[in-house]
Amino acid sequence: MTSNVGVIGLGAMGSGMARSLRRHGCRVHVFDVRAEVAQAFAAEGGVACASPAELAAQCDVIVSVVVNAAQTESVLFGEGGCAAAMKRGSVFVMCSTVDPNWSMALEARLAEQGVLYLDAPISGGAAKAASGEMTMMTSGKPEAYAAAGPLLDAMAAKVYRLGDSAGAGSKVKIINQLLAGVHIAAAAEAMALGLRAGVDPAALYEVITHSAGNSWMFENRMAHVLSGDYTPLSAVDIFVKDLGLVLDMARASKFPLPLSSTAHQMFMQASTAGFAREDDSAVIKIFPGIELPKKP
User: Fold this and answer.
1) Which of these is catalytic: 128, 141, 171, 173?
2) What is the rounded distance in angstroms from the CA atom of residue 149 to the CA atom of residue 169?
3) Does 285 qualify as catalytic in the annotation?
4) Looking at residue 296, what is its pLDDT?
5) C-alpha gyration radius of the chain
6) Predicted local confidence at residue 93, as pLDDT
7) What pLDDT score does 2 carry?
8) Which of 179, 218, 227, 258 makes an SS bond possible with 187, Cβ 3.0 to 4.6 Å?
9) Average pLDDT, the chain
């Protein structure tokens, strides 16, 4: 395993991934647009870098955990970007949820510089990222896996190798996001109906999480609603973006997605109502005439 690895983006997922790498003995270099977050990680034993380029000059593998394609472009090719500083044969691991066609184009673009690429979206949430138990949906060339494979295993309990070129990982992640977004929207709708009908929300949560109607998203996200805590672990606007990508992929082949379309509209409504940066469970706030539990 390479001793010098870089992580760009220390949000809910990236910070846990960086700590997992450090637990496995890596010297972890980090960059985040919030300099104080990178410095806090350095105080725990990492190395804070002033720019992606500074990080790239010291690392053989770079793991990018930013929000979207635009931020990834900035990390690579913007001012102080890492692409120009990456050594030939180094690996860029892209963990964002993006258009698969964009990911395929990025692989080709980096190959022109002699840089290897892994299309490697992630899932599992902040807690599993912190414990090294998340899932990675990856695709890329065998040489990229040879260089970065042990690092992937250090960050994730499940590393799925879905193809020998970019795109397959992002396609599977988008399908995962279809289900995740629809499940959150359905969970919010069910809880809202229960509240409107006068059912005790704690009792409803207890029954559903032990019944056939349960889902991972109901159990996880409706706990946020019960606590009245909408601190964003994954924000409403993430699903505005991700379900938009789902619909874009389907539109290209004229494939109908009625449930995804409805869920996307629900998250859009929540976003425009002022809840864009709240936890995605805040989609429940679009329902009228219900009294939501308050944060103690």
Assistant:
1) 173
2) 15
3) no
4) 85
5) 20
6) 98
7) 62
8) 218
9) 97
